[in-house]
């Protein structure tokens, strides 16, 4: 029996929970991906400088464009686009992120936190705007990918749930990318290690 048949509010609550879970990861994800991109950039620039030095003055180190900086920029650019779209749909001014991911990682984190707060305050209004879903899915996929890549600590609003296997209240609820590329619920017990891949989501319940 579908969950909605038992509790009509369940699909709605699941949607809100997955939404908040994703946007709550923004500060850590933006900070981690920005840090890695900067470190890699610095390293490559230094190597390049070493390679071409010995022949006089170098005033222009080419910008190194690697996968790390592309990934960090993808999260930033998509978040910025999503905020602009959401703001125009609901008619409330959103944090106006700088057009480029700031080199200052602390500043980038601060902006991501401002975005997180703004979106969390408006999740119940955003729910009504179906046309935001494609950009939202894209942003959330990037968030899950960056979180996994950098192993950033997960921020959760939900308290640990009771484990049906060992009986300890130690089950963390996360969203991961399933085989179909969509967000899938993962319940992991820190006590006994039991993992349940849930099916209770859903963008289609929106
Ligand atoms: Zn357990």
What do you see in this structure?
The structure is a single chain. The chain has 206 residues and is of the alpha+beta class. The chain folds into two domains: 8-153; 158-206, N-terminal domain of TfIIb (Single Sheet), CATH 2.20.25. It is 53% helix and 10% strand. Strands 1-2-3-4 form a four-stranded antiparallel beta sheet. A hairpin with a 5-residue loop joins strand 2 and strand 3. Helix 2 (10-24) runs antiparallel to helix 5, helix 3 crosses helix 7 and helix 4 packs antiparallel against helix 7 (133-150). It is globular, with a radius of gyration of 20 Å. The relative contact order is 0.17. The model is unreliable at 55-63 (pLDDT under 50). The structure holds zinc ion (ZN). Zinc ion (ZN) binds at residues 163, 165-166, 168, 170, 189, 191-192, 194. The site of zinc ion has 9 residues, from loops.
Count of discrete alpha- or pi-helical segments spanning 4 or more residues: 7
What would the average pLDDT be, to the nearest integer? 85
Instruction: Please give the alpha-carbon distance between the first and last residues.
Output: 19 Å
Number of domains: 2
The tally of beta strands, per DSSP, is 4
Largest sheet: 4 strands, antiparallel
Regions with pLDDT < 50 over 5+ consecutive residues?
55-63
Rg, please?
20 Å
Structural class: alpha+beta
Helix content: 40-55%
User: How would the global form be characterised?
Assistant: globular
What is the strand arrangement across the widest sheet? 1-2-3-4
Which percent band covers the strand fraction? 5-15%
Ligand set: zinc ion
Order of helices and strands: HHHHHHHEEEE
